[in-house]
Automatic annotation (TrEMBL):
Protein name: Spore photoproduct lyase
A molecular function GO annotation: DNA photolyase activity
Family label: Belongs to the radical SAM superfamily. SPL family.
Highest taxon of source: Bacteria
GO biological processes: DNA repair; sporulation resulting in formation of a cellular spore
Gene Ontology cellular component list: endospore-forming forespore
Subunit structure as annotated in this protein's UniProt entry: Monomer or homodimer.
Leading EC class: lyase
Keyword Cytoplasm carried by entry: no
Signal peptide: none
NCBIfam families per UniProt: photo_TT_lyase
Function in brief: Involved in repair of UV radiation-induced DNA damage during spore germination. Can repair thymine dimer 5-thyminyl-5,6-dihydrothymine (known as spore photoproduct (SP)) by in situ monomerization of SP to two thymines.
Pfam families named among the record's database cross-references: SPL (PF20903)
Length: 342
């Protein structure tokens, strides 16, 4: 069982203590007897304990930095949403394939931002620009925010903020089952609560430090019972021996364990496994014993944003993947919407 995250070490930016949430978190960690240090910036955390890279990396993954988000220009977040809303960065999970391996680089510690009202004000401006169309905000582009929200309650605040907004909708995805504090949030149907799911082989081999499948599905049932629109991201779709059976088993279990109400307004997002050359180097350094297949010869190269290319599956394998999983969605969840395959 994965327990709710509690950092071993916490850094505060001095400015964070000028905000109510910053003060609240400092009091909380003092009561919990967690070691507290100070840093001039959430981007400048140095001298983490550890004898070598391996130890420092693991310490960083259990370190929380409480800071102020200075950049309030939101990144786009296609195809999931119009914009990424930056409440947190980093994740306590140890998924071998995660793209945060490279985007976080040498800073794999977890950051939470306490200037939430300023972030909401920035979101309001984006909503005004697009009104009367809805603007969707993705809260989990660079973090698994559910994993820390039992500590910060920032996500709960955001759910209620967008619940009363005229033109805003919120989305996020998680691999954690610690959702009980979010069940009574006044979401008004404007938050799409998604869970990341995968074949058993992928969860067991490549997703250490996250909640097991059974706990995620149980949490999804609770979320649907609380009236949230529910979704599942199947990612990364990873080809392995018996992959068709593995993914069929996933959909059968989902279909068997979700209530009728949970299936009424359901979305799926399908994302194939991909990696970049820098990601491969970092993954092999951080998880030297990984079984993750990272062979460029077995992939095709696709140019991405900012001129950084990635290795994805060849077109015939990609099409088969799309057909097989799309077929499972049609068979087991005929009312569900497939939002995209990428």
């Amino acid at each position: 069982m994965v327990k709710p995250f509690m950092p071993q070490l916490v850094y505060f930016e001095p400015d964070a203590l000028n905000y109510p949430l910053g003060k609240l978190l400092k009091e909380k960690f003092e009561k919990e007897d967690v070691e507290i240090r100070f840093t001039t910036s959430h981007n400048q955390v140095r001298n983490l304990p550890g004898e070598n890279h391996f130890q420092k990396y693991r310490v960083a993954k259990s370190t929380l930095v409480v800071g102020v988000r200075k950049t309030l220009k939101f990144d786009t977040s296609k195809p999931s949403a119009e914009y990424a809303i930056p409440f947190a960065t980093g994740c306590m999970g140890h998924c071998h394939y995660c793209y945060l391996q490279t985007t976080m680089g040498s800073k794999p510690y977890i950051r939470t931002y306490v200037n939430t009202d300023e972030i909401f004000d920035a979101a309001e401006k984006y909503m005004e620009e697009r009104a009367p169309e809805f603007t969707r905000f993705e809260a989990s582009c660079t973090s698994d925010i559910v994993g820390i929200d039992h500590i910060t309650h920032t996500l709960k605040k955001a759910i209620e903020y967008f619940g009363q907004s005229k033109y805003g909708k919120l989305r996020f995805v998680t691999k954690f089952h610690h959702v009980d504090h979010l069940l009574d949030a006044k979401h008004n149907g404007k938050t799409r609560f998604r869970f990341s799911m995968n074949a058993d082989y992928v969860i067991k081999n490549f997703e250490p430090g996250t909640s097991p499948f059974a706990k995620r599905i149980e949490a999804a049932g609770k979320v649907a019972g609380a009236g949230y629109p529910l979704g599942f991201i199947i990612a990364p779709i990873y080809l392995h021996d018996g992959w068709e059976d593995g993914y069929r088993d996933l959909f059968e279990r989902l279909e068997g364990e979700l209530s009728k109400e949970a299936k009424e307004d359901l979305t799926f997002e399908l994302i194939q496994h991909r990696f970049t050359k820098p990601a491969k180097r970092v993954i092999q350094k951080n998880y030297p014993m990984t079984k993750l297949e990272l062979d460029e010869e077995k992939r095709r190269y696709k140019w991405g944003r900012y001129g950084i290319g990635k290795y994805i599956y060849p077109k015939d394998e990609e099409q088969k993947m799309k057909d097989v999983l799309g077929g499972y969605i049609e068979k087991y969840f005929p009312k569900a919407k497939l939002e995209y395959f990428t």
